[in-house]
Amino acid sequence: MVSFEISDLIQENRIDKSVYLDPEIFELEMQNIWAKAWIFIGHDSQVPHAGDFYTTDIGRSPVVMVRAKDGQVHVLHNRCGHKGAKVAGKKCGNVAGFRCPYHGWSYKLDGALRGVPNRHGYENTDFDIKDPQFSMTPLARVANVRGFVFASLSPEGPSIEEFLGDAIATINNVADRAPEGEIEIVCSPLRYEHDCNWKMFVENLNDAMHPMVAHASVGQAAKSYLADQPEGTVYPKEAEIIFPFGSSYKFFDEMKVTALKYGHSYMGGQSSIHTGYSDIPDYMDAMEAAYGDTKTKEILSQNRHNTIIYPSFTLKDAIQAMRVVRPVSVDKTIIETWHFRLKGAPDEMLKRTILYSRLINSNASMVGPDDWDCYRRMHEGLQSHSSKWVDMRRGLSADSKATQSKGAQSFGTSDLSFRNQYRVWAKYMNTGTSDA
Amino acid sequence: MHDLMPLTIEDKHRIEGFLYEEALCLDEARLDDWMSLYSEDGVYWMPASPAQTCPLTEISILYEDQLLMDIRRRNLGHALSPSMDYPIRGSRIIGNIHLPKTQPNGGAIRVCSTFHAQLYYREETTHFAGKYTHDLVAKAESYSIVRKRVDLINADGVQRNLLIYI
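Structure tokens for the assembled complex are given below, as produced in the milestone run.
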């Protein structure tokens, strides 16, 4: 029995602080959200050849994504069917099959048990090599959307199409922005440990009231640098990335925020903080050669800021990076930033992404640590005996007037996306399903 | 020591002294002085993986030229930065200074060393360790850094905030 009622924690305009602080709530989230929803696992370009594998976790449940000989990508529980040891230990690699390093049970790439050593000891014990309980079991559901692999620990729930809703337009746009229509993950990710509850990071992705405050210093430092340069100095590309973070409230309001059924949301649509980037001529040429003029313009006219695919990841369409949320405990979260190449695009596109990510996402950047600090301050401040409520009423009166066609929409600095996340959070937590 | 070029004892002392001076500038957070040790096109590079070969098409923890060093210098301790609300103190120690057999083309001297660094920040002391690779060019009686590569032993591991160069 849990010691709280979900309905007491979530109000229309505020939430109880224990949602971020209570280890018991975190445990329930692992069961009712992370073990139920579609969770982003990885991209199939991480396992291009038969036998390639990549290990990760859903919440704390270890899984391995692997490509079988027939080309199919499987997601398996990374647990030996014998005594439960984690089978694949490396982050990634290539194998002919898996073999548990403890007692030598071996598995095919689809997880089926292939053999156990010294087999005669199992005679007359009901042991059956074909019994799934002894295999590396495949996850209940796996889906591949333009190479983005999602899995769910639950056999039940909405289909991936139903789950993603209009968020699929971001995934499609990300892939369409490649002249060859496919993306490819490059290099190892940034892995950045945050001293915060996972939901604080997720909320912040569509929090348009914070950039001009929390990230003011780097913009000012860059401006003061430029002011000291001789007249006629060429505007560096770094400035193109840093300055939009200091955009006005009006700019962010006009970007708008859109909230979707299963807790997803995005900012922008036609414009975002990435709209002002200068064109890379070779890229435009490659796109026009691949798609023609009209289709190229259509693809590049979609410009969403962060699309949050609740609860596990976020991606941008104009920058080739995505961030994966890895909850560790109630106040520990690892954020992985993965980068990808648009197949068929010139290296300049990848270089811009890498520069962006170094300036914004790195643990040593002049932006990431300021976000980090604000989350940590929430953990510190919420220890206060003052009030138990965390407020999210901004824009509430506009919610009813929101456009409902492809999700609810409001002005960009509205708290709409937070309210939407907690509406869905409460459904998951109450029932273990996002349907209600 | 597998010296490639015949270095005099004075040269060796001068190189050591130069590396110590750089470490001291960072320990004392004197980023103006620290930047002046880099050439105009000098870069500071901290890869995000031990095998990383390209700073432009692969992600790094840091890859900064004079432009970014200058912005960072102005951002350090900035009143509007929440993460800069706390003291940052460091202590770096360098050892095993040697010249590797493979030297860069173009006349720079490559110097490798082992470092250990402790940073104090937000009530936490964090230990960093790894290898420095300095590419130096002669400048007056001293040197100038063309490139400093910092290979953390945990480059591809989980990282926490890093608010100053190591």
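Residues 9-152 of chain B form a domain with the Nuclear Transport Factor 2; Chain: A, fold (CATH 3.10.450.50). Chain B touches chain A at residues 46, 48-49, 52, 56-63, 67-68, 70-72, 74-75, 78-85, 122, 156-163 (CB under 8 Å). Further analysis is deferred to the final report.
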